[in-house]
Design a protein that fits this description.
The structure is a single chain. With about 200 residues, the protein is of the alpha/beta class. The protein is built from seven helices and seven strands. It has a seven-stranded mixed sheet with strand order 3-2-1-4-5-7-6, with helices on both faces. Strand 4 (about 100-105), helix 5 and strand 5 form a beta-alpha-beta unit. The longest helix is centred in the C-terminal third of the chain and has 18 residues, at about 140-160. It is globular. The relative contact order is 0.15. The protein binds S-adenosylmethionine.
Length: about 200
Amino acid sequence: MGMYATHVLPRIINAACGAKSAAPLRKRVCEGLHGDVVEIGFGSGLNVPFYPSEVTGVAAIEPADVGWNLAQQRVAASEVPVRRSGLDGQKLPLPDASFDSAISTWTLCTIPDVAVALTELRRVLKPGGRLYFVEHGLAPDEKVQRLQHRLEPLNKRLFGCHLTRDIVGLLTDSGFTIIEADVFYSDGAPKSFAAETLGVAVSP
Ligand SMILES: C[S@@+](CC[C@H](N)C(=O)[O-])C[C@H]1O[C@@H](n2cnc3c(N)ncnc32)[C@H](O)[C@@H]1O
């Protein structure tokens, strides 16, 4: 990985994902978390202030050292213990059936082999464990989808991020059962980048 990916991009992500408009979505997505939690694509720890008191500990999976370092103040201020427990959602160094909940916020767009990462999440979740997620992806409208397909190659080069992933489809193909999925455009960004899916999926 070059300097841009290791040093610059995590700071861009920290600023972009730290937008005030994301806070209500983070609050909503974190609400149901409980017990031992695995968070993939932990980034700079922007979900940490929203972890509910029912969470006993968080295993943070994050490849970017700069992201992890930017998270340190939030981690230190948190009553929930957070440990960096891996670098790659595609290969979790964690035992089978060891987590009650999982969380992913704006990360499934980035992981290269997202199907493998979701299979890993299912492996480490206990039966009945829930994945709480908010992700941007393929828009519900065809006109926006066409623009997303045009923008995707540049977006991947600049931000390492896909625009056209079908979040519900990926989750169901990986064996999750969706029990809630709210699809909407978030405020403050063009629709191509703002087609969100927020919900809960169960690993049977
Ligand atoms: C758009 S950011 C979202 C960060 C954070 N979840 C948030 O809501 O602010 C995507 C994150 O996924 C991380 N990431 C990239 N590849 C990954 C992988 N293979 N496994 C786990 N995380 C990965 C990036 O380093 C980045 O922190």
